[in-house]
Design goal:
This protein has 13 helices and 10 strands. The longest helix has 16 residues. Helix 5 crosses helix 6 and helix 6 packs across helix 9. The chain is α+β, with helices and mostly antiparallel strands and 278 residues long. The strands form 3 sheets. A 4-stranded mixed β-sheet has the order 7-8-9-10, with helices on both faces. Strands 1-3-2 form a 3-stranded antiparallel β-sheet, with helices on both faces. A 3-stranded mixed β-sheet has the order 4-5-6. Strand 7 and strand 8 form a beta hairpin. The protein has 3 domains: 49 residues; 114 residues, no CATH class; 93 residues, Endonuclease, Chain A (3-Layer(aba) Sandwich), CATH 3.40.960.10. The model has no long low-confidence stretch (mean pLDDT 90). It is 45% helix and 16% strand. The protein is elongated and about 80 Å long.
């Protein structure tokens, strides 16, 4: 058995007992460590040289990835300005690890077993709700609904421990196509505005509709970068204008880095009644 290949196939960091259960002898494991094929982390974990740093940190700390770190590991959309310090879940009676990290000392909502290096999706959502500002937490919850095998009814049936998590179940929609839309809609709803996302108008979905007539399109990185994309967007904007809609278009940088500019444009359009039906 190729120990290094097996460890790599399991994500780069594996409990030693799992390698033995897969057929490797203790002698073969020692040989792989001595040759540099794998590295031993503490007593029980084996890692390849290319193992994800966050997983190495979790194994070294005898914990598991939690909160933002678990979200990043799973590929959820995390706002770029959010901190990079590792978040680790530890049992309430565990020793304090030597690595610098944000520590979550809780009993899991969903037990993951002693060999798990990443907490469950449900525990990640609970920790995000407790730990992060409301806007960041909402973005991550929307991203989880888009990427994970969990539905909104299931999410709302869970017996959450924190008030913050219970409040998020009432606010999350499961309809956001991107983190950018989540941030935008959350900020506008604080104004008490009627904001709907992913509304079908003139044959195509628009990112947001404020009231009855004010359309907002958000140009993220993924879908608006080519000449063909721009031509399609302009044609749709023109069709919407012909039907009596006002269209405002903002970029990723506008929403994340120049929000006052976005706020002024929308406020002016509302003051002019552009969101009202004729």
């Amino acid at each position: 058995m190729d120990v290094a290949q097996f460890v790599a196939s399991r994500g780069g960091v594996v409990h030693r007992a799992e390698v033995i259960e897969a057929g490797a002898s203790p002698g073969r494991i020692r040989a792989a460590v001595l040759s540099g094929e794998v590295e031993r982390l503490r007593r029980s974990w084996l890692a390849t040289a290319t193992a994800p740093p966050l997983l190495r940190t979790a194994a070294t700390a005898s914990g598991r990835l939690a909160c933002l770190s678990a979200a990043r590991h799973r590929g959820w959309w995390v706002p770029p300005q959010v901190e990079d310090l590792p978040h680790l879940h530890l049992h309430p009676h565990a020793a304090v690890p030597a690595v610098p990290a944000v520590l979550h000392w809780t009993i899991p909502l969903v037990p993951s077993g002693p060999r798990a290096l990443v907490e469950s999706v449900v525990d990640t959502l609970e920790h995000v709700a407790r730990c992060q500002p409301r806007e960041t937490a909402l973005v991550l919850w929307e991203s989880a609904l888009a990427r994970e095998d969990i539905s909104l009814p299931v999410l709302r049936s869970i017996d959450w421990r924190s008030t913050a998590a219970r409040m998020l179940t009432a606010e999350v929609t499961g309809r956001m196509a991107s983190g950018l839309e989540s941030i935008f809609a959350a900020r506008l709803r604080r104004w008490g505005l009627d904001v709907r996302v992913q509304v079908l108008l003139a044959g195509h979905e628009v990112d947001a509709l404020i009231g009855e007539r004010l359309v907002v399109q958000l140009d993220g990185f993924a879908f608006h970068s080519s000449s063909a994309d721009r031509t399609r967007d302009v044609a749709h904007d023109r069709e919407l204008a012909a039907q009596g809609y006002t269209v405002l278009r903002f970029t990723y940088a506008d929403v994340l880095h120049h929000w006052p500019r976005v706020r002024r444009a929308i406020s002016l359009a509302i003051a002019q009644g552009r969101h009202l039906a004729a």
